[in-house]
């Protein structure tokens, strides 16, 4: 379990104003999707926030963890929950698509090499 | 949440994110270009500098300071910053005897319009839990040692209220202008885990 006392790493205490807010590119995409969908009126912010709190609460309550706490992983889970509730995208669809993407040749796993649309 | 099994069975979270984005794009629910613009806005345009301007104005303009403490949302809007999520920003003042520090124990609510996106430590469960239980110890570990006679108030954010700390104006800055004060106001000072920098 990390503590706020870490001197480096993702849970390191603040040392300057310039800390990166996203550790990995997918985190910014997960963030961007939620805010874009909210701004487009697909769901309200409290709806998303409630789902996020539920995910965080469940993680905190779980006795055993396969992996360390990861805020944007829970954020993505909350986003999937809300979209599933709206019947916009189901979890099965996301998994099927991701598995299909995993079959791509290795060079195609870099975003920049995938055609934009 | 229920995903188990090895890497062959459960796609990486990066792939899963990409898959979701692709599905949403195909269904016309998001426009990746609009989304890029939103991400850029939060990564570069919205940040602690907005909050620093608010604090520097409050340090130099007593009337503004009064308005800010009375109605943070409205006073912050005067400077052109307003929230995306419609939350109320409540500003609390640090003094030589009272120190406020902000947390969101439920999730990671944060005053985005004035501070940008939260840093990773703010979202960490250890910070969220420990700063409530033992704020003095956590602050000391983060480099801020407060005298025992300073009262620490932990402000827990909710979906309705986002807290912003108005730090003390550092000693020896009486001659500085508002613009010169802005760089002294760090994000950490506005969360209450540090004091404003000295020139």
Attribute tags:
heterodimer; A: 117 residues; mainly alpha; 4 helices; 0% strand; globular; disordered N terminus; disordered C terminus; B: 199 residues; alpha/beta; Nitrile Hydratase, Chain A; 2 domains; two-stranded parallel ribbon; two-stranded parallel sheet; 11 helices
Strand coverage percent of chain B: 5-15%
The count of DSSP E runs of length 2 or more, i.e. the number of strands of chain B, is: 4
Give the strand order of the largest sheet of chain B, numbering strands 1, 2, ... along the chain. 1-4
CATH architecture of the largest domain in chain B: Alpha-Beta Complex
Structural class of chain A: mainly alpha
State the share of residues found in helices of chain B, binned by percent: 40-55%
How big is the Rg of chain A?
Answer: 17 Å
Q: Considering the protein shown, what is the CATH homologous superfamily of the largest domain in chain B?
A: Nitrile hydratase alpha /Thiocyanate hydrolase gamma
What's a quick, concise take on this entry?
The complex is a heterodimer of chains A (117) and B (199). Chain A has 4 helices and no strands. Chain A is mainly alpha-helical and 117 residues long.
Detailed description of the structure:
The complex is a heterodimer of chains A (117) and B (199). With 117 residues, chain A is an all-alpha fold. Chain A has a domain at 25-104. Chain A contains four helices and no strands. The longest helix of chain A is centred in the middle third of the chain and has 17 residues, at 45-61. The N and C termini of chain A lie far apart (41 Å). In chain B, helix 3 crosses helix 4 (62-70) and helix 4 packs across helix 5. Chain B is globular. In chain B, the strands form two sheets. Chain B has a two-stranded parallel sheet with strand order 1-4. Residues 1-8 of chain B have low confidence and may be disordered. Chain B folds into two domains: 13-44, no CATH class; 47-191, Alpha-Beta Complex (Nitrile Hydratase, Chain A), CATH 3.90.330.10. Chain B has eleven helices and four strands; from the N terminus they run αααααββααααββαα. At the A-B interface, helix 1, helix 2, helix 3 and helix 4 of A face helix 1, helix 2, helix 7, helix 8 and helix 11 of B.
């Amino acid at each position: 379990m990390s503590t706020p006392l870490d001197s480096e790493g993702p849970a390191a205490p603040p040392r300057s104003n310039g800390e990166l807010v996203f550790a990995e590119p997918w985190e910014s995409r997960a963030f961007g999707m939620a805010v874009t969908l909210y701004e487009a009126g697909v769901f309200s912010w409290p709806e998303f926030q409630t789902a996020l709190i539920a995910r965080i609460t469940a993680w905190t309550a779980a006795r055993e963890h396969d992996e360390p706490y990861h805020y944007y992983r829970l954020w993505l889970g909350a986003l999937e929950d809300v979209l599933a509730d709206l019947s916009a995208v189901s979890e099965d669809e996301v998994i099927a698509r991701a598995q299909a993407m995993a079959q791509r040749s290795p060079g195609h796993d870099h975003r920049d090499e995938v055609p934009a649309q | 949440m229920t995903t188990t099994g090895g890497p062959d069975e459960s796609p990486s979270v990066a792939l899963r994110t990409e898959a979701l984005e692709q599905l949403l794009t195909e269904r016309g629910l998001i426009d990746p270009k609009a989304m890029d613009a939103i991400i850029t806005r939060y990564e570069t345009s919205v940040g602690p500098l907005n909050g620093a301007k608010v604090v520097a104005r409050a340090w130099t303009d007593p009337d503004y300071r009064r308005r800010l403490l009375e109605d943070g949302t409205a006073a912050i809007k005067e400077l052109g910053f307003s929230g995306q999520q419609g939350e109320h920003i409540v500003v609390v003042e640090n003094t030589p005897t009272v120190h406020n520090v902000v947390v969101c124990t439920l999730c990671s609510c944060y005053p985005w319009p004035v501070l940008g996106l939260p840093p990773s430590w703010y979202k960490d469960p250890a910070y969220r839990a420990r700063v409530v239980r033992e704020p003095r110890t956590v602050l000391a570990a983060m480099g801020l040692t407060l005298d025992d006679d300073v009262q620490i108030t932990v402000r827990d954010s909710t979906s309705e209220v986002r807290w912003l700390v108005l730090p003390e104006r550092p000693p020896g800055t009486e001659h500085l202008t508002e613009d010169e004060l802005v760089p002294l106001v760090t994000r950490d000072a506005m969360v209450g885990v540090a004091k404003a920098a000295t020139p």
